[in-house]
C-alpha cells in the first residue's frame, strides 16, 4: 500500500513538473542558444540544422520560417540600451555601427506582431532608403509621429518590439562573438 | 532522519528526475507532434509543388516571400529561383520545422539559384551513378524528411520596387526531378 502511494506520488510529481516546465519554456520562448548583445537578442542557431530543441519546438509551434544561417540573421530588441522596455509613448534614436550585410531592414511591431498604423503606409526602413552623413553614419528616429529624415513608425501605445534583419550577411554565423559596441544603441529621447 | 521523512525526500527526488526526463522527451517530440508548423499551415491551402505568395508569422514587411512544398517520396526535387539585381535567398525547411539549407543569390549560376533536393538514400544512389569523368554540377542538398518547404525571399529596397520583387518571387519553382 505504502509503495503504491509512493509510486503514484512519483508519477504525479514527474508529470506535473514535466508539463509545467515544458509549457513555461516553450510559451515564454526560452532559447538557451540565444545571444544577448546590448539591447539585442540574436537567435543565432535557429537557422541551422543543429538548432537547439527549444528553438525547434518554438518554431514549429508558431509556424515560423526562420532565416537560414546562409541567408541572414534576425536581431530583436524589446528594451532600450538602458534596459527599459521599448514603449510607444516614447521616442527613441537608434544609432551606431551595423554589421556588414548586402541589405538590412528595420521594422517595429506591437507585442502581438502587428505593424503600426500610420498615414505614410511605411512599415519598415531598409538599408537602401536610409540617409547617411558624409562619413556613412546614420541615425534612425523611432517615433509614432512622422519625422523628417530616417524615421521608423512605432505603435502609438503599449510596448513594442524592434526587428532588425540582415540579408546575405556573414553575421549569422558569428553572432556569438559580437560586443555591444558592434551594434546600434537605442537611446530614449522623450516621452509623452 | 525518520522513515517517513526519508520516503518523502525519496519520492520528491525520483519524481523530479522523472519530470526532467519527461521534459526532455516532450521538447524533442513537440515539433513532430504539432500541427501548426509553417509547412502544415502552407500545405492546408496549396497543392504539392505549387508556388504561392506566403506570409508566415513574423514576416519581414520589406520582403516579398514565395513558397512551394516539395515531396521526395517519388524521387528528388529541383528548386529553382531566378536571380536579378535584388537581394534574394532561398531556404529549405523540413516538414516539422528547422532550416535544412539556405543560399543567397550570390550562389546563383547563370542567373538562377538551382538546388536538387534529395533524401540521404537518393543522394547515395545518385552518387553511385555519377560518371567519374564528368563530375555532376548540380548543387545537391540532402533533406532529413520526405517533405518540406522551399522559400524564396526577395528584399524590397524601395517601396517603388515592390512589384519587381513580387515578380521575381513568383519565379520560384519546385518540380519533381527525374532521378
What would you say this structure looks like, in words?
The complex is a heterodimer of chains A (192) and B (179). Chain A is of the alpha+beta class and 192 residues long. Helix content of chain A is 19%, strand content 27%. Chain A contains 2 helices and 10 strands. Chain A has helices spanning 2-27, 53-62; strands at residues 35-37, 40-42, 72-77, 90-95, 103-110, 124-126, 139-143, 151-153, 160-167, 185-191. In chain A, the strands form 2 sheets. Chain A has a 6-stranded antiparallel beta sheet with strand order 1-2-3-9-5-6, with no helix packed on it. In chain A, strands 8-7-4-10 form a 4-stranded mixed beta sheet, with no helix packed on it. By secondary structure, chain B is α+β, with helices and mostly antiparallel strands. Helices cover 31% and strands 30% of the residues of chain B. Chain B has 4 helices and 9 strands, in the order H-H-E-E-E-E-E-E-H-E-E-H-E. Chain B has helices at residues 3-33, 38-43, 120-129, 162-169, and strands at residues 52-53, 63-71, 77-82, 88-94, 99-104, 112-118, 140-142, 147-155, 173-176. In chain B, strands 1-2-8-4-5 form a 5-stranded antiparallel beta sheet. In chain B, helix 3 (120-129) links the parallel strand 6 and strand 7 (140-142). Chain B starts with a helix and ends with a strand. The model of chain B has no long low-confidence stretch (mean pLDDT 92). At the A-B interface, helix 1, helix 2, strand 5 and strand 9 of A face helix 1, helix 2, strand 2, strand 4 and strand 5 of B.
Amino acid at each position: 500500500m505504502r509503495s503504491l502511494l509512493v509510486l503514484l506520488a512519483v508519477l504525479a510529481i514527474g508529470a506535473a513538473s514535466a508539463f509545467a516546465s515544458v509549457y513555461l519554456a516553450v510559451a515564454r520562448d526560452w532559447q538557451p542558444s540565444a545571444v544577448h548583445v546590448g539591447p539585442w537578442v540574436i537567435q543565432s542557431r535557429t537557422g541551422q540544422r543543429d538548432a537547439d530543441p527549444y528553438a525547434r519546438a518554438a518554431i514549429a509551434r508558431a509556424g515560423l520560417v526562420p532565416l537560414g544561417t546562409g541567408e541572414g540573421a534576425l536581431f530583436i530588441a524589446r528594451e532600450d540600451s538602458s534596459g527599459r522596455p521599448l514603449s510607444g509613448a516614447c521616442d527613441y534614436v537608434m544609432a551606431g555601427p551595423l554589421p556588414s550585410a548586402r541589405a538590412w531592414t528595420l521594422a517595429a511591431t506591437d507585442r502581438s506582431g502587428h505593424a503600426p498604423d500610420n498615414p505614410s503606409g511605411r512599415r519598415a526602413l531598409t538599408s537602401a532608403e536610409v540617409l547617411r552623413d558624409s562619413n556613412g553614419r546614420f541615425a534612425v528616429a523611432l517615433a509614432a509621429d512622422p519625422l523628417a529624415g530616417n524615421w521608423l513608425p512605432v505603435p502609438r501605445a503599449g510596448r513594442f518590439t524592434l526587428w532588425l534583419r540582415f540579408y546575405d550577411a556573414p553575421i549569422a554565423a558569428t553572432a556569438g562573438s559580437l560586443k555591444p559596441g558592434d551594434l546600434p544603441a537605442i537611446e530614449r529621447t522623450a516621452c509623452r | 532522519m525518520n522513515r517517513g521523512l526519508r520516503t518523502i525526500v525519496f519520492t520528491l527526488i525520483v519524481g523530479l528526475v522523472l519530470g526532467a526526463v519527461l521534459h526532455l522527451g516532450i521538447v524533442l517530440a513537440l515539433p513532430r507532434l504539432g500541427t501548426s508548423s509553417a509547412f502544415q499551415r502552407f500545405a492546408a491551402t496549396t497543392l504539392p509543388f505549387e508556388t504561392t505568395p506566403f506570409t508566415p508569422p513574423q514576416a519581414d514587411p520589406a520582403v516579398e516571400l514565395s513558397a512551394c512544398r516539395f515531396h521526395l517520396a517519388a524521387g528528388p526535387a529541383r528548386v529553382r529561383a531566378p536571380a536579378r539585381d535584388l537581394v534574394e535567398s532561398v531556404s529549405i525547411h523540413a516538414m516539422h520545422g528547422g532550416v535544412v539549407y539556405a543560399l543567397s543569390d550570390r550562389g546563383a549560376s547563370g542567373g538562377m539559384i538551382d538546388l536538387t533536393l534529395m533524401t540521404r538514400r537518393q543522394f547515395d544512389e545518385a552518387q553511385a551513378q555519377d560518371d567519374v569523368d564528368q563530375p555532376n554540377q548540380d548543387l545537391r542538398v540532402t533533406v532529413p524528411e520526405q517533405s518540406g518547404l522551399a522559400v524564396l525571399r526577395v528584399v524590397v529596397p524601395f517601396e517603388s520596387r515592390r512589384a519587381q520583387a513580387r515578380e521575381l518571387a513568383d519565379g520560384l519553382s519546385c518540380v519533381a526531378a527525374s532521378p
